[in-house]
Amino acid sequence: MGFEKVILEKVAEVLKSDNKAAFFCGSLSVICDEADARKIQRRLTRDRYKVEVNPDGSYGYIFDFVA
Prior knowledge:
This protein is of the alpha+beta class. The chain has one domain. It contains 2 helices and 4 strands. It has helices at about 5-15, 35-45, and strands at about 20-25, 25-30, 50-55, 60-65. Strand 3 (about 50-55) and strand 4 form a beta hairpin. It is globular. It starts with a helix and ends with a strand.
């Protein structure tokens, strides 16, 4: 499985919806509230991904993966 597909499946499990997240220019953009963003961050961190999370200023959060 590709990296993006794996990540999108993990986010869909947390949000219980598969149409609220997408990759754009290498960053994961998710339509969600702050509580769901924290759940997503915890899930990705638990699975050993290093992510930085920032609000996108309008409707959700941006997740940047760091090495």
